[in-house]
């Protein structure tokens, strides 16, 4: 998944001559805090609601405001992970996308980005979840996949995060079956530490919501 495939079809940019009040109105409508400033295909910069409130002159054009961000953007062929990295680093709610010649193509909203991540994590697919904790030096993706597949089960998605800096990681596996007893037993036989498992719909809803909330916290939204 690349940036050009995530462009919003409804959220507009603001023209350099548009008043700040109009930018605030669009931000309120689409529940975002940033909008690109453009002049036809030229991307000038990104204005935030904080920039507007700080100057407190909503009647003047957006281009006359002091922009707190230094023209952030991603290229149309950059991967979704790079989009997330920029959004997280700068706490963006809208990410401008430019082509190879730096012409403005559109923007990606943080909501669209989060929804696409939910899709990438196979949140809508039925199945079970197994959460493991392993030491970094013991982590082997090939072994984990072999354990799962030896029980006639497939990994749909995987979430990895550090739980103990330079020591341990937590691995959440989403698999394509709700009956995961045999997979759990195999992990136990291989001496894996199982933090938790989820196989009922209500439990799955809870863990997927937790992962989605963790993603939003990661983006500082």
Question: Nutshell version of this structure?
Answer:
The protein has about 220 residues and is an alpha+beta fold. It has helices spanning about 20-30, 50-55, 80-90, 110-120, 140-150, 180-190, 200-220, and strands at about 15, 35-40, 40-50, 75, 95-100, 105-110, 130-135, 155-165, 170-175, 195-200.
Describe the fold and architecture.
The strands form three sheets. Strands 8-9-7-10 form a four-stranded antiparallel beta sheet. It is an alpha+beta fold. The two termini are 22 Å apart. The protein contains seven helices and ten strands. The chain has two domains: 3-117, CBS-domain; 121-218, Alpha-Beta Plaits, CATH 3.30.70. The mean pLDDT is 88. It has helices spanning 20-30, 49-55, 80-90, 110-120, 141-149, 181-189, 201-218, and strands at residues 14-15, 34-39, 42-48, 74-75, 94-98, 104-109, 129-135, 155-164, 168-175, 193-198.
Describe the SSE topology.
Elements lengths: L13 E2 L4 H11 L3 E6 L2 E7 H7 L18 E2 L4 H11 L3 E5 L5 E6 H11 L8 E7 L5 H9 L5 E10 L3 E8 L5 H9 L3 E6 L2 H18 L3
Parallel strand pairs: 1-2, 4-5
Antiparallel strand pairs: 2-3, 5-6, 7-9, 7-10, 8-9
- Name of the CATH architecture of the largest domain: Roll
Distance between the termini: 22 Å
Give the oligomeric state: single chain
In one word, what is the shape? elongated
Give the DSSP E fraction (strand runs of 2 or more residues). 25-35%
> Helices and strands: which structural class?
alpha+beta
Question: What number of domains?
Answer: 2
Question: Residue-averaged pLDDT, rounded?
Answer: 88
The overall strand count is 10
Strand order of the largest sheet: 8-9-7-10
Largest sheet: 4 strands, antiparallel
Count of discrete alpha- or pi-helical segments spanning 4 or more residues: 7
Order of helices and strands: EHEEHEHEEHEHEEHEH
| CATH homologous superfamily label of the largest domain | CBS-domain
CATH topology of the largest domain: CBS-domain
